[in-house]
Every structure is written in C-alpha cells, then in structure tokens.
C-alpha cells in the first residue's frame, strides 16, 4: 500500500512509519512526505530515508481554498491508499476531503473527544485528568471530530509537566500508529457513520 504522510514538525511519528515500512512484511511504503512549511525535521527525516518531499505553504496562495486545491493535487499525484497527518498542523478543506475523506488519518495526543486542538496534553494536565492518551481517527470537516480507529490510554503522573506528559503520550502514539496503519493496509476498512470496521 502507498502512504503519503503530512508533517509540520519533528516527524517522530513519520520516523516510526519509515522504520516499520523498511520491513516488506509491513505491507506499506511511505511514497511521499508533504509539509506546510520548510526547514522542519520531518522533511529531513524523509530525505534521509530517500522519500520524495513537497511543501505547500498557505502563504504562497491567494486563498485558503487555492492552497487546499494545490495540496490535494500534490498528494493525489502520489496515488496514496492512505494519507496520514502525523503532526500536520493545518486543517484541510473541502477539496482535500472530497478526494481523501475516507482515507485521511490523523493522530491526536489525547483521548478524544476530550481536549481537541493543538494543546491537548497541556489542556489535559491543566484539567487534572488522571488518564489521557492518543487517538487515531479518520479526518472529517471538524477539528479532531472524525470516526475513531483506535485509542491507547496513558497515565498522567503526579509530578508530570507538559513536556514529560507529551513525551509519554508520543511513545504510545507512535506504537499505535504503526500497528493500526499496518492493520488497515493489510485488512482494509469501511466507515459507516461514525463506525470504522476492519474485517
Ligand atoms: C503528535 O503527538 C501529534 O499528536 C501532535 O503533534 C505530535 C507530532 O509529533 N499533533 P511528531 O512531529 O510526529 O514528532
């Protein structure tokens, strides 16, 4: 199966996928990595692995819709079976979702629907929850609202700060991402309403 991965930052989730895909038994290859900005470690990781990269900046387009169209075209060129947002910090638009809506995965660093948005671990810590985690889901038009594929729980420890909690979540998150993407590409999936079924 062909994976296109979208990143905006350090790309540790991308790295986990690149490492897993090095084994042919995994059943998927990362065929391209896209970003919304230059100069990020995620792009360096792709280049180090010999994977083609592309950058589509919102600021280079007249409207957000133009950007969405350009991003869609760029991703489509690589004919992905799955598109994975791995720390991609932009909400895609209508064109992208029309093209990839049933095969666009995102990983979020809390147990949704609690604490959506870019400060999940900080918000979870501030709220005082004792358990949080990571959620893998298919993206819909909302922010962190789509049908859930899998979740993994991670404890919040008494002496956690945001960095310690964020790192503990990311370890579980990477394992879940690799396992679940492998399962989806090997077994397939259907989405019915909010329910994701893997046969
Ligand atoms: C992940 O924890 C993701 O949930 C959050 O940003 C992080 C991305 O990390 N939105 P990385 O770029 O894969 O290292």
Structural write-up:
It contains 6 helices and 9 strands. With 199 residues, the protein is of the alpha/beta class. The chain has a 7-stranded mixed beta sheet. Strand 1, helix 1 and strand 2 form a beta-alpha-beta unit. Helix 3 (64-77) runs parallel beside helix 4 (94-100). The chain is globular. Pathway: Purine metabolism; IMP biosynthesis via de novo pathway; N(2)-formyl-N(1)-(5-phospho-D-ribosyl)glycinamide from N(1)-(5-phospho-D-ribosyl)glycinamide (10-formyl THF route): step 1/1.
Helix tally equals 6
Helix proportion range: 25-40%
**Which CATH class is shown?**
Alpha Beta
CATH architecture descriptor text: 3-Layer(aba) Sandwich
Task: Round the Cα radius of gyration to an integer and report it.
Answer: 16 Å
Ends apart, CA distance between termini? 17 Å
Strand order of the largest sheet: 3-2-1-4-5-6-7
Helix/sheet category: alpha/beta
Low-confidence stretches: none
Using the alpha-carbon principal axes, give the shape.
Answer: globular
- Name the bound molecules: 5-O-phosphono-beta-D-ribofuranosylamine
Number of domains: 1
Q: Please, what is the average pLDDT? A: 97
Percentage beta strand: 15-25%
| CATH homologous superfamily annotation | Formyl transferase, N-terminal domain
Tell me the series of helices and strands, N- to C-terminal: EHEHEHEHEHEEHEE
Q: Would you report the number of β strands?
A: 9
Q: How would you name the oligomeric state of the polypeptide chains in this document?
A: single chain
Keywords: Purine biosynthesis, Transferase
Family: Belongs to the GART family.
InterPro entries: Formyl_transf_N, Formyl_transf_N_sf, GART, GART_AS
GO molecular function: phosphoribosylglycinamide formyltransferase activity
């Amino acid at each position: 199966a062909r994976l296109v991965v979208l990143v905006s930052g350090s790309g540790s989730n991308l790295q986990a996928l690149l490492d897993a895909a090095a084994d042919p038994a995994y059943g998927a290859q990362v065929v391209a990595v896209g970003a919304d900005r230059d100069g990020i470690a995620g792009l360096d990781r792709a280049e180090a692995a010999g994977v083609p990269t592309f950058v589509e900046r919102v600021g280079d387009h007249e409207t957000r819709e133009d950007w969405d169209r350009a991003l869609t075209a760029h991703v489509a060129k690589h004919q992905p079976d799955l598109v994975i947002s791995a720390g991609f910090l932009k909400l895609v638009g209508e064109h992208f979702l029309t093209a990839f809506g049933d095969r666009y995965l995102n990983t979020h660093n809390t147990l949704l629907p609690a604490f959506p948005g870019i400060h999940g671990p900080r918000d979870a810590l501030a709220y005082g929850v004792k358990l949080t985690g990571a959620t893998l889901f298919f993206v819909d038009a909302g922010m962190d609202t789509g049908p859930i594929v899998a979740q993994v729980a991670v404890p919040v420890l008494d002496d956690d700060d945001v960095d310690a909690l964020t790192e503990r979540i990311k370890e579980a998150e990477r394992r879940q991402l690799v396992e679940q993407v492998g399962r989806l590409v090997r077994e397939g999936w259907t989405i019915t309403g909010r329910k994701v079924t893997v046969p």
